[in-house]
Design a protein that fits this description.
The chain is 0% helix and 58% strand. The chain has no helices and seven strands.
């Protein structure tokens, strides 16, 4: 399901193929990441995650303030 990011997200593709549909001020597009690729998603972008079976990713989000929970 589509999700609107409340933070900046960085995805490093370790193995497989990641496909991320995005919609932001630039309009809709699909980003495809192969092993070794780094994908950066802006706060406020609407994303939909996909990929091939067995894909492995490293995900980082910032900033994180666990005291103020996101809704």
């Amino acid at each position: 399901d589509p999700w609107t990011l409340q933070y900046e997200e960085t995805i490093f593709v370790i193995e497989g193929e990641a496909r991320i549909g995005t919609a932001d001020d630039g309009g809709p597009r699909t980003v495809v990441g192969a092993p070794g690729d780094l994908i950066v998603l802006r706060k406020g972008a609407t994303v939909q995650y996909g990929g091939t079976a067995g894909t492995r990713l490293l995900l980082s989000i910032a900033p994180v303030d666990w005291r103020n929970r996101l809704t």
